[in-house]
Amino acid sequence: MSISNAIVIGAGIGGLAAAAALSRRGIAVTLLEKTAKITEVGAGLQISPNGLAVLQALGLEAKLTERAAVRGQAVVLLDYKAGRQVARIDLLRGAADRPYYFVHRADLIDILYDAARRGNVSIEFGAEVVEVSPGSPAQLRLADGSLRRAELIVDASGLHSKTRSLLNCDSVGQFSGQVAWRAVIANDVGHPQEAHVTMGPGRHLVSYPLRGGRLINLVAVEERVAWAPEGWSIADDPANLREAFSSFGGQASDMISAVERCTLWGLHLHPVADVWHKNGVALLGDAAHPTLPFLAQGANLALEDAWVLAKFAARLPVDQALPKYQSTRHARVTRVIKTAAGNAKRYHLSPGFTRSAAHLGLRVASTVVPGTMISAFNWLYLHDVTAAEKA
């Protein structure tokens, strides 16, 4: 017998997508969110074709365009001194049916929230979960002392999930030696519909347009010895960002100079959880597999998780659905996270022969055989967790 009711913890991208996908398959869903309301958190996201496949299957791609999501044309690698192009990866090659989008996180949250409501998901705000207990049925306790039970409890509460610690006895994450500033500025520099990665020694800047091109999302990453806390919402002085990137020229310098408010995020390494489920309780998204931002896959992996979990929950009893969910997802997310961790080294090469040779190789490949640049990502972008049902 398949699962008939579920509780989802957390109204982020993974939690809302899971609630929408589960309810779409006839499962009664309650979504619990500890905050009093959904507020605009974070900044830009890149929805690559693998994540978009899930939004398409949920009937939500048109909502992206209604919210002025920007269709990405390319990823362009630039040198830091004057912004000279090193290589260009064409995102339009072979992607007519599944484009690549740049979208504000708040807009995607709103789209998924509306989808969950239309699916008759019961959404409760101010509902802080303090304890989850696997069992038959699984149970959780709220901060007000009340208990809730369901055949399936999905913890999509993110990086600091208590359930992850319960199932895995994890230690805290290890500081990666890198920090990231996040900011959104007005697009006064004519930034094209491209993701730009401006590469410098020990640091890089990612920029891309949002909301119809009116805004630019910035993520500036620096290698450093000093530890920094993990979290999106820790405010920092823009002067620190400007000092760290004072050697950058061209458009990168103009964009950094325009930053008025920014946050600083310490990037920490977390292993993929060994255990994703136990007796009716499952982890999803960052709760199971936090990733560094260097492949722009955090949101996309959460969307994939949501679809796969819902698929098995609608077909199998909980003691079969959850092992199938983890076994289907584990190898893929491990590969994505390993690849993301390695990207920073390629972006941060110091001046010298190695950097010059690497940039020359990228420039030649981009110019002579441009199709090879995007085809190297086929394993990532062409993966479609909804394909079997489409067929």
Quick summary:
The chain is an alpha+beta fold and 391 residues long.
What is the count of helical runs? Answer: 13
Q: How would you characterize the largest beta sheet?
A: 8 strands, mixed
Structural class: alpha+beta
> What's the total count of β strands?
20
Describe this structure in words.
This protein is an alpha+beta fold. It has a domain at 5-71 and 99-172 and 271-344: FAD/NAD(P)-binding domain (3-Layer(bba) Sandwich), CATH 3.50.50.60. 35% of the residues lie in helices and 27% in strands. It has helices spanning 13-24, 49-57, 61-66, 105-118, 162-168, 238-244, 250-257, 298-313, 318-347, 353-368, 371-375, 378-381, 387-390; strands spanning 5-9, 28-33, 44-47, 70-71, 74-79, 85-90, 101-104, 122-125, 129-133, 138-142, 147-150, 152-155, 174-186, 194-200, 203-210, 215-223, 235-236, 262-269, 277-278, 281-283. It has an eight-stranded mixed beta sheet. The protein has a six-stranded mixed beta sheet with strand order 8-2-1-12-20-19, sandwiched between helices. The mean pLDDT is 91.
